Amino acid sequence: MASQSIPDKLFSSFQSIAALGKKYDNEDSPTEQYYGFLTKIEDVSYQAQWSVQFELVPKEWMDVAVLGLKSTVRSQPPASPATLLVFEDASPDDIAKNLSRDVDDIKEGDWYMITLGKGNPALRLRLRKSSSSPYKTKACGKFLGIKKSRKLSRRFRARGKISVKAIMNMLAHMQCDEIGVMDVGAGGCNLVYNDNGVPQFYVDVGLPMFANFNSMPPANPVTGFVGICNPGPCLANNPPVILTHWHWDHYTMAHFSNNAAALRNRHWVVPNQAFGGFANNVFSGIAPMNRHVMPGPLPGVLGGNVHVIQCVALAPAVGFNNTGLAVVVNVDNINNRRALLPGDAAFQCIPGVGAIAGLRWITATHHGSDTNIIAAQIPAAPNAIIGKIAYSYGIRPNGVHCYGHPRAAAINAYHARGWGPRGALDEPATAENRPNSGENPRQRGNILMCNNVIPPPCGVANCPFHVFPKTLV
After folding, report:
1. What is the superkingdom listed in this entry's lineage (predicted)?
2. Fewer Cβ atoms within 10 A, N terminus or C terminus of the chain?
3. 358 and 407 share a domain?
């Protein structure tokens, strides 16, 4: 189809709106009011507490640049002065009172009017200055209502190519022989390599949520920088990114890392999910030709050795964790051996998970959480084969495990299905020797799974993804 120019009147309207938007292009609202997208509820159930995370956009900016447009406009909103807010370790009842909703009605994906300066204690992070640190504030909120919330969610969501052929062709070229499960703290990042240790593609590029920044690896003693932020993730061979879901701890290298702009310049395969102002800014930074949105109605896309599966929420396992993507990687065509990277999805939400042939390796879903874990739904390790499982989670310097991950109930469920029953040989962890091993000092580091060919140096000094103190073969 031939491209069409924007009509003059419509173009003038866009210019006027852009000019008005610049007037309010400030992270801080003069009225302390913000449109807030509830991006994540982390159930810290062993403490009967929640971590509730919002993406905020000043009310004045949103009223002009998004809500001021006619309802027929469905284009991607422009980059906004977004900030992040979290209510950390609060009881569900306190959260409900603070948001003027019943506990059972609070769910990911809804929009609220958030007011700062009153309400419950919260942490906020401004994003436009790299030197910004989280600061304490107070915040309360009120649900915008179904109609207005849906209107915003129609605008704030991944838009791009929805081409099965494009995704298949990209994946078909991937040579998959080993997988790096990276030590990033309380986040998710996996990099698939070929048999020569050359990067092929990422599954998630996450850093910890800002309240958990101190769970990241220690700074390099020579450079003084944390490698996953500076220089940032390895980009040798231009690896594309498959994003499992739009939670901060799975994509924020694309904002916070030193090479974030270059990372956003790769091809991205993303789930068709709604998101808030911050995720919209990251997604908008990806060139339109490099955005590949997973076709929601399809059960998955198979390209060569890579199978991307569309997850389907099954109550009570709902939310973005369970409506994103899971990835199966064939790492050995001759012997039919595969690895499953579920992101944060409950296994019952991954269609066909129990029928994956040759499954030998998995990563613990949701960083070892027991939320929605049902032992019978975990795919069983093949008979007479010890299943290998890698855990990726974060521990703060004071020894506190972020969100209490990994949970004993989850570890026991994996053991019952044949994953990691012999301990450290079969279930290494990125944050310590093995799940909840508690050694001092902790033996943390990247895990090389499926093979043991250490990736050679890529030419970037202090690249963090060429050192693997742990293997899982």
Report:
1. Bacteria
2. N
3. yes
Q: Are 463 and 191 in contact (CB under 8 A)?
A: no
Which residues partner with 36 through β-bridges? 56, 112
- Out of 122, 155, 188, a domain closes at 155
d(CA 28, CA 149): 22
Length of the chain (residues): 473
Which DSSP state fits 324? S
Burial class (CB in 10 A: 0-12, 13-18, 19+), 473: exposed
In a domain, 1, yes or no: no
User: Buried b / exposed e across 85-114, counting CB within 10 Å, b at 16+?
Assistant: bbbbebebeebbebbebeeeebebbbbbbb
Calpha distance 95→112 (Å, rounded): 13
Asked whether the beta carbons of 176 and 306 are under 8 A apart, the reply is yes
Give the DSSP H/E element, type plus range, for residue 310. Answer: strand 306-310
pTM of the model: 0.94
Number of helices and strands in the chain (H, E): 9, 19
Residues 147 and 170 both lie in one domain? no
Domain count for the chain: 2
The tens digit of pLDDT for each residue in 381-431 reads 987 678 999 999 999 999 999 999 999 999 999 999 999 987 778 999 999
Q: DSSP labels for 434-454?
A: STT---SS-----EEES---P
Give per-residue pLDDT as tens, 336-379. 899 999 999 999 999 999 999 999 999 999 999 999 999 999 99
> What pairing do the DSSP bridges indicate for beta strands 135-143 and 178-181?
unpaired
Q: Enter the tokens of residue 157.
A: 């969501």
195 plus 298 within the same structural domain: yes
| CA distance linking residue 307 with residue 359, whole number of Å | 13
Range of the structural domain that residue 269 is part of: 164-472
215-256: per-residue pLDDT in tens? 999 998 888 999 999 999 999 999 999 999 999 999 999 999
